[in-house]
Design brief:
116 residues; mainly beta; four-stranded antiparallel sheet; 0% helix; 52% strand; globular
């Protein structure tokens, strides 16, 4: 059974930091391209950051460029999203996605709330 489990969300003040994790099981992790998405209330789900198989290739949505860092540890079957200088507009449910081009899996999401 394939599972993607996000963790690390919570309530943080503007300017603060959080690190999200996405732990995978049931897949050959290194064969999957990984992506973080987020969905704010009343908005469509949007891509936040994307990382290739080895971790060398990354790209980011413009609004998070320079503040967020995506990474992966294939030995731990885990992907991360380090989020710094958080803003209220970063408030959303954050989801991880894994795809090998044929099959796509999603996690259940973790809530991030940025508020004073």
């Amino acid at each position: 059974q394939v599972q993607l489990v996000e963790s690390g969300g919570g309530l943080v003040q503007p300017g603060g930091s959080l690190r999200l994790s996405c732990a995978a099981s049931g897949i050959t992790f290194r064969d999957y391209v990984l992506t973080w998405y987020r969905q704010a209330p009343g908005k469509e789900r949007e891509l936040v950051a994307h990382i290739g198989w080895s971790g060398d290739a990354t790209n980011y949505e413009a609004a998070v460029q320079g503040r967020f860092t995506i990474s992966r540890d294939n030995s731990k079957n885990t992907m991360y999203l380090q989020m710094n200088r958080l803003r209220p507009e970063d408030t959303a449910v954050y989801y991880c996605q894994a795809t090998d081009g044929a099959t796509t899996y999603w996690g259940q999401g973790t809530q991030v709330t940025v508020s004073s």
